[in-house]
Sequence to fold (115 residues):
Amino acid sequence: MEHRELLSGFVRLHILHHAAEGELYGQWMIEELARHGYKLSPGTLYPLLHGLEKKGYLVSREERDGRTARKFYRATPLGIEALAIARAKARELFGEIMHDPHGSKKTASRRKSGE
Ligand SMILES: [Zn+2]
Fold:
């Protein structure tokens, strides 16, 4: 994932959002994130899931199907509380960065991207 450090917070919130709606598993989450333009390998996603579980935001259970086991994650009450706080903060931040109140200022650093 490009700009991983900057975007990993968005990815964590995205995970928490879906884990609050219902159970999810790693591969499903990788596909969901890919749909939104985030390319994450299992080697990147699983540590995020484990980290969120360690912090108490997610709980997991394992389901065995013969030899294979799949881990399902779900948000805890703490995770749901954190998501509500993050949602309010995201709304405020997005309001600011999408509105771009500084966009009318002419500065030397303004550039068209992709040119
Ligand atoms: Zn999503």
Q: What stands out?
A: Residues 14, 18, 32, 36 surround zinc ion (CB under 6 Å). Residues 105 and 111 are 12 Å apart (CA to CA). The two ends are 23 Å apart (CA to CA).
